[in-house]
Amino acid sequence: MVGRQICHLLAADGRLIRAFVRATADQAKVNELKSLGASVVQGDLRDPDSLHAACQGVSAIVTTASSMPFAYRPGENTPQTTDQDGYLSLIEAAQGAGVGQFIYTSFVQYPVSFPLQDAKRAVEDRLRNNGLTYTILQPTYFMEVWLSPAVGFDYANRKATIYGTGVNPIRWISFQDVAQFAVASLDNPAARNATLQLGGPDALNPLEVVGIFEQACGDPFEVQHVPVEALQGQFAAATDPMEKSFAGLMIGLAAAQPVDLSATAKSFPITLKTVQEYAHEVSNS
């Protein structure tokens, strides 16, 4: 999702792109990358040899890959094997190949420890301490994911699941804007060895978001609340890394607060997509 958008932006900017894809990648998506002029190299984050080959002659790495949620395979493709061990191998390969900049997509800090967050923090720590020039992007909640049927925000059927009270303001961000920040970070002095918290233009609590969708759709929504205590129970009972991570993300959503964008906005004058724009797009699709 984010990676493909980044490739489109890089191609539009006239950049030379090398796209790193798995052997199991959707051929239609691979063909799309080739149509942008990207050279395609096959490999896997869990295969260090393929990483060393892919990094040769590369000036910058921009990476968004993750085992979650779509590629997760218990015991095979997990936060540990891919989001942590795989990325640590990629950092080593990048350093050995003399890569000039490493742009890594993470996320903001969450109040509980869970496998995906633990992996992200381990990678961030390595980047900050290994000598590579790095940029760490920490976006908040993607509106295309967290305001979608996949997590209970079923705008098509006018139903919304709210985690917690729904009164905590959040700067929902579009994945398209995260891609813009990634591309704008290339060779940007403001992004050099920087950790950038990213969010959307408005701080809106989930109940306010429901109101925006009701206005866009022209119908009232049925709202269901999941208490924080229930989320904590799910978190405590979860044994699978993906289940544990999703429960941790939802606990974070129930407690999230807006990030401060004042410093980032000065260095990255990007026009950010609003929840209102997203709501009108999906309600009219």
Structure description:
The chain has 285 residues and is α/β, with parallel strands linked by helices. It is 45% helix and 14% strand. A 4-stranded parallel β-sheet has the order 3-4-5-8, with helices on both faces. A 3-stranded mixed β-sheet has the order 6-7-9. Strands 1-2 form a two-stranded parallel ribbon. The protein is globular.
Write the layout of secondary structure elements.
Elements: H1 2-12, E1 18-21, H2 27-35, E2 39-42, H3 48-55, E3 60-63, H4 79-97, E4 101-105, H5 115-128, E5 134-139, H6 143-146, E6 153-154, E7 159-163, H7 175-184, E8 194-198, H8 206-217, E9 222-226, H9 228-237, H10 241-255, H11 262-267, H12 275-283
Helix pairs in contact: 1-7, 3-4, 4-5, 8-12, 9-10
